[in-house]
Design goal:
Strand order of the largest sheet: 1-23-22-15-14-26-27
Largest sheet: 7 strands, mixed
Oligomer: single chain
Structural class: alpha+beta
Distance between the termini: 83 Å
Helix content: 10-25%
Number of helices: 10
Radius of gyration: 28 Å
Shape: globular
Amino acid sequence: MKRLLFLSAFIPVLSFAQIPAGYYDGASALSGYALKTKLHEIISAKNINWHYGDLTAFYNQTDLDRYYDHTASNTTILLDIYSEIPDGPDSYEYTTANIIGSANAEGQGWNREHMMPQSTFNSNYPMYSDMFYVIPTDARINQLRSNYPYGKAGSTNHYTFTNGSKISNNGTPGSGYTGRVYEPIDEFKGDVARSLLYFSVRYEGKLSSFNYFNGTSAANDRSPLDGTEEKAFENWYINLLLQWHNQDPVSQKEIDRNNAVYSIQKNRNPFIDHPEWVNVIWTQTPDGSAPQAPVNLNVQQTSAYFVNLSWSAPADSDLLGYKIYQNSVLVATTKNTSITIDHLEPSAPYNFTVKAYDNGYLESPHSNLITVTTLANDIYAKDLMITKYLEGNLNNKAIEITNKTGHPVNLNKYRLSVQFYNSSAGNYYFPDPYELEGMVQDNETFVVLNPNANFSCITNEEARFVTAAPQLTYSGSQYLELRYASTTVDAIGTSNLNNYETLGDVSLYRSAAVNQPNSTFTLSEWQIKPTDYCEDLGSLATNSVNANSLAPYSVYPNPVVGSTLYIKGSQLQNVKQISVIDLSGKLLKVKNQPFKNTNALDVGDLKSGVYLLKIDEFTLKFIKQ
């Protein structure tokens, strides 16, 4: 369709007109991958993640063709960058009503295209329904594009579509990849580039867990991701995206779409707002010298389930981060000089080393090796735990998760999974999970909320995660679990069973006495509340490890002036075990069946300080003077 050129005159004004004040605070002074990480923090801080099925209706707000031979009053025709003919009549057009599942020719209907193929992230939410790279396109072209990367068409052509876009063998210089690529027309190459660069920023922290080329992929099944969190893509692909970005500047269509998606998802594509940042991030020149090894690797704290490590940074002009090895296996990366390594086993020895890496991904030698043996037990939870489950009318669904582990937890490997019943097949199944992300601090709780919920005690703005993914659409009959990677951490209900008799028309609040997650649902651990019940959501008030007022025991005198601490409580004789732990998590005393004949505990050998007394599942704090 013929482009409406008069709109281009407004681009300089409108491109910045609707960026919220302060949205990019802290970014302008940065460059390189530090800028990319800051942008990730900004655009990931508060999102609303919608269900894949919601996108069809949203496209009437974000993807109508008001830019070619249609006018601003167009309220029906979708803009499809795979079939749009900018300087002439289109071969076919669609409204949202023309969505179909598949097609054997162009022009039969449209469906939702993942510009970053969904096989990259196994169709998991929130990636699965992110509108910045999930767009409406002709169904046939979408099918034929498959999961091929974008690229420059080579000499062997397989399909040429009605607007001139092609699927050919790769002709992009420097790739070493000869499989198929899809080349869009010049009008939209910048749009594609900025969408994929957005993906690399939005999901930094998860990129290394996505499917990427590792030298073993089939020729026609190659993701251009390179397994790094910062650079994100292979060199040939970065060069291609930068070329397309620079050759096809930001258009009015992209500016309007960025603002429209922001109103729906509450985040933005920074490379539409600030196109100059693309080159600021990806045109660095590494110094070519590998960094020296980190030194002084040591243990700051040892627990039963985690260790805190720290080290000193080597001198290097373009140092980027560190790789942590546990028993010679890479287990984590960080940009800091300290880290918590968790999901360890009690009373187990572990070896650790650290490597530094720079902007050119050159690596240092290993640091000094340290050996750590975890404690036999401690006061902390071994993992995150679900502390509230809210089930109500319509979309009133919320999950509260609490960190009592004694350390900050990286959420990037955690996911919520829900089980549904397929009545036609007669079996239970798990749809693709919803992945959490970011960090949660010790003794911090957060809420995952359905965006259409109407609770009195929490709003979308107050929840940490807001999603309409299947995991927040349960009705009381489904089994729900919190996973770490593929391991069940905590569970609501029983798998492969209709749970309505137990979970229907109720909400659940975890009893304050429960301080550990449980992969087997145990109803006695929960307080049953009515449907739509909503109080203290997102609060540690009744779930903190220091909520001693609810414990059936107390200690005196406190502070302890002499050498004897007394414990008061009913049925002391039934206590199985007590432990004394210092605030670093070090286990100092353990006694089994300690109160058969006494209610006293000798603490005369303890130095002055604050200690934790664990009595079976209850924890109390006392001071030794």
